[in-house]
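Summary for the steering committee. The consortium agreed at its last meeting that each partner would contribute one worked example illustrating the joint modelling workflow. Our contribution is presented below. We chose a case with several input lines so that the handling of multiple components could be demonstrated. No manual editing was applied between input and output; the record is shown as generated.
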Amino acid sequence: MGCADGGTSIDLWRAVLKRLRSRCPSRPIELIYTDLPRNDFSQLFRTIHGQAGIHSYLEGIDNVFVLASANSFHRQIVPSSTLHLGFSSTASHYISAVPTQVSGHVHMVGAKGKERDAFKAQGARDWERMLLARASELRPGGRLCLFNFGIDEEGRYLGCTGGVSMFDAFRDLWSGLADARVITNEERAGAVFPQHYRTVAEFTAPFRNTASPVYAAGLRLEHVETRVVRCPYAVAFAAHGDAAKFAQGYIPTLRSWSEPVFAAALSSARTLAQRLAILDEFYGRYESLVAGSPEGHGMDYVHVYLVIRKAE
Amino acid sequence: MGCADGGTSIDLWRAVLKRLRSRCPSRPIELIYTDLPRNDFSQLFRTIHGQAGIHSYLEGIDNVFVLASANSFHRQIVPSSTLHLGFSSTASHYISAVPTQVSGHVHMVGAKGKERDAFKAQGARDWERMLLARASELRPGGRLCLFNFGIDEEGRYLGCTGGVSMFDAFRDLWSGLADARVITNEERAGAVFPQHYRTVAEFTAPFRNTASPVYAAGLRLEHVETRVVRCPYAVAFAAHGDAAKFAQGYIPTLRSWSEPVFAAALSSARTLAQRLAILDEFYGRYESLVAGSPEGHGMDYVHVYLVIRKAE
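What follows is the complete predicted structure of the assembly.
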């Protein structure tokens, strides 16, 4: 769930399918990739069918049938009791609706009080809905492996593991555009990531409460742990020491997933050219910031890994 | 199989699903759309999920799960014995390989002797392979509805039902570009549609021969008929009589499916701009031809409709 173009996971699935084939030589295997309708499914299929210059697993493993769905993971994707293994990595932090603006920040990690509570409540609703949809789909004994962005036991989260906080930098730079009258105060306030980073306690709550709908639907937590994966750009910078090179590589990867949030905050009264110029200015400022004082920047991943079983 | 963007068939599937729902109120239904990897599957999913300005069937009918596959219909698409109904319209005339160039023509309908035999043999191989893949997929009692371009009992086929033959017009205009030194003789010879139009006898041969692999695999022909559907542009022209309007509407629809064949015949040594200019010239000449002498032009559809059952 949340497959994008399928490139990142192709080696994982080759390893899984090879292991599965050695244990079940003749069993047909359906593999269903899901993402939202606007995803580039043609690129996904070209990747899987070996037409994208990436070595696919399809050539070496027989009797594998690849399908795709554009159903949101907040809803049921396959018929009840037909799923053996559900997998999603780095996707479930996207919530189905932004419950509130965040005063003085662009992400819920900077929200306090009632605003923070509103995100927690939205995150809990979506998590429960997502789990209940999976509970319907899973066969008894089936498993979910869900590796999610979250907040670990030490309060760390994506891009905030002790150095410069990435989301604080986004906030400061976006706010700076308003101070410089490049954007309006309305546009400043309109940028909010449609995300909620859950804590380990939030992720595990439906499993600890035996009266919860998730528990009643038969889902049981088998395993939970947190892990930090170091930002590869920051790791490379520590070796090569070239701040400009670090900034030039690092900012485009931030831009690839964050730009839609800031683009959506800009007034539709602006021309497309104006909006692009503002976004270029925004990410240009971030690049200058990193190139000028690179220490502490980086986007370390903080994941909460969950393995969940459907009771038999 | 051969779904394109799913728009053309959406009303058909709404009608089918509504009827099915009234007979089976609670049965989950998986609907799997297939086409080749280069198909625009995002547009397909936007159509089905109601994001393309077309009324989808998903809103009104519960427990329907839409999936997509990019497997060719020449290969197995779903696991064995899992398919209840296979449907394909206007797709199986595409053959998996062009067996030979066609002397003096751009389509197998103009092929004679050994060249014609080569297309017949390729068509028979692909038809058998396609049917055997479906035989594996179908559950006992399952059905295939295959509505295919073909050649009817009176020798009629797409765009050739008594008036000007569309494929002869393609041949004459393409050849005219070579005579005028706009394209080379090699480019003239290189344009061949990767299609075979089968006769009713060719479509039904595997079912009449009880020693055939298709018959042995359990497929039985329940129904066969041919039908001609009149070209809507020619029908409209008969009413409005405006030849220029007819040509302006008719040629773009021909271009939409035929252009890749002529584009592929052009030398890769030409610039993209040169190739586009040649294609514009080609279709411009076709438009002038129709605008100047509209009578008899048109792309009537000639289909062979087959209903096939998997023996129980």
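The interface with chain B takes residues 28, 30, 32, 37-42, 44-46, 48-49, 51, 63, 65-71, 76-80 of chain A (CB under 8 Å). The radius of gyration of chain A is 21 Å.
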